[in-house]
Amino acid sequence: MASLPSSLVFTVRRCQPELVAPAKATPYEFRQLSDIDDQEGLRFQMLGLQFYRYDPSMQGRDPVHVIREAIAQTLVFYYPFAGRLREGPNRKLAVECTAEGIMFIEADADITLKQFGDNLQPPFPCLEELLYNVPGSEGILNCPLLLIQVTRLQCGGFIFALRLNHTMSDAAGLVQFMTAVGEIARGATFPTVQPVWQRELLNARDPLRVTCPHREYEEVENTKGTIIPPDDMVLRSFFFLPTEVSAIRRFVPQYLSKCSTFEVLTACLWRCRTIALQKDPNEEVRVLCVVNARSKFNPPLPVGYYGNALAYPVAVTTAGRLCNNPLGYALELVRKAKADVTEEHMRSLAALMVIKGRPHFTVVNSYVMSDLTRAGFREVDFGWGKAAYGGPAKGRVVASYYIPFRDNRGEDGIVVPVCLPAVAMEKFIKELDAMLNADEELIRVHSSTKYILSAL
C-alpha cells in the first residue's frame, strides 16, 4: 500500500527560460485580489506534475511547441496570469496586468515514461530537474505568476510541470486554466468556459462583521516545538483502493454509515498520524479540511470564477481524546467541521482577514487535508490524451492531498502523500496496517458509540 521512494536518476537538458506573453494585446490595468485570495496561508507556490504517454496519432507534433503556442493564445483570455503581483496598503494584493508573460522552459530528458515505474505517484525522482526553480523567479511579489516546464521523454511522451502563485487560483481555478490551454492546443479558438475575475464577490462586507467562529486562524504558541521540523522527514504515498476504504469503514458506527470517503479517510489518517507523533495527551490537535465553497453561495459563484474560493474549517480536540476514542469520534468532528462552511462563514472569514491583517491559518499541531479527487487534473488533454498522472508534485509537511489514481492493473483508487519524521512514519504505517487488517473484536470495540467527549 505504501510506495517506496524511487532511486531513479536521469539527466534533463533545459533551454534558457523564456517569457511567453499573450498572443494579442491585452488591457493594462490593476486588478485586486479578493480578501480570501491574499491571506498569508495562500502566499506560496503550488507545484503540479502531469505525465503524458506517447500517442501515435500525434506523430510529428512537438508538445513543447503545441503547448507554448496554446499558452500564448490562452493568456489573451486569462491575461492577469501574464502580469505581476503588487502589495498595497494593509497588505492588499493586486495584479498589475503588464502582459510580461509567464515563465516557460523547454527541456528534454534521457528517460522513458516506463522507467518511472508502474505507479506514478509522489515522491517523484529528480523533481527539481523536471520543475526547475529559475533563480529570482519564485517570489510572491513582482515575479512571474506561473512557471511551466515541458520536458520531452525519449519514448515520445512528455511531462508538463507547473508552479503557480496560489494567491491567484485554487485547484479548481488552475484546472480551468489548464483545460483552456488543452482545448486551444487541440484546435479551439477560445475556451469552453470563459474566465470570470470578479474577485470583489469574495471581499469583506462594509461595515466589517465577523459573525462565525474561525478557530482555524487562532494564534497558538509553539511552546513544545510542535511544528514538525523538516529534518529527517520521509515522504510516502499510500494508495487506497475501494477495498481498503471498505476495511476502514468497518470501524464506522452505523449512524455515521453515510459518511463520504473523504470524511472517513480524513478521520482515519488524522488519528493514525497523531498516534504516530506521540503527542502529549493534553495537547490540542487540529485537522483542517480544505473545502471548495463555490456552491455554498446563493446564487453560486459564477461559472468560470478562477480565484480562491476556499475555506479551512477545523476540528479541534486533544491528542488523548483523539487517540483513545474509537474512529467514530474523529469522524463526527470532521463531519461537523465541514458542515460549518456556509455563505455566511465565507463572508465572516473575509472580514476576519481584513481585521486581523490577513493571517496564516494555525500550523501548530495542525494537519491539512485537501480532496483533489474531483479537481480534474488527470482529464487535462493537450492532444495526447488524459494524463497518466495529474496532480500535486509532492506532499507537504503539514498537508496531505487525495489524488485520484489508476494503478497498473487498471484499478481506480486514491493516492495520499504523507510526510512524517522517519520514526513516526514507521509507527504511522503500523497503525494504519492494524486498522486495515483488524479482527472482528477490535472492530466491535472501535465501532462503539461511547466516546470521551471533547469540550473544545
Counted up, domains total 2
Tertiary shape: globular
Look at the structure and give the mean pLDDT. 93
Helicity level: 10-25%
The CATH architecture classification of the largest domain is 2-Layer Sandwich
CATH topology of the largest domain: the name is Chloramphenicol Acetyltransferase
Distance from N terminus to C terminus (CA atoms, Å) equals 34 Å
Based on CA atoms alone, the radius of gyration comes out at 22 Å
Count every beta strand, where a strand is a DSSP E run of 2 or more residues: 18
Strand content: 15-25%
Series of H and E elements: EEEEEHEEEHEEHEHHEEEHHHEEEEHH
Q: Indicate the multimeric state.
A: single chain
Question: How would you characterize the largest beta sheet?
Answer: 8 strands, mixed
Question: How many H/I helical runs?
Answer: 10
- Name the CATH homologous superfamily of the largest domain: Chloramphenicol acetyltransferase-like domain
- The low-pLDDT segments are 1-5
InterPro entries: CAT-like_dom_sf, Plant_acyltransferase
GO biological process, one term: fruit ripening, climacteric
Pfam families: Transferase
Keywords: Transferase
Descriptive overview:
This protein is of the alpha+beta class and 456 residues long. 24% of the residues lie in helices and 22% in strands. The chain has 10 helices and 18 strands. The strands form 3 sheets. Strands 1, 11, 12, 13, 14, 15, 17 and 18 form an 8-stranded mixed sheet that branches. The longest helix has 17 residues, at 261-277. Residues 1-5 have low confidence and may be disordered.
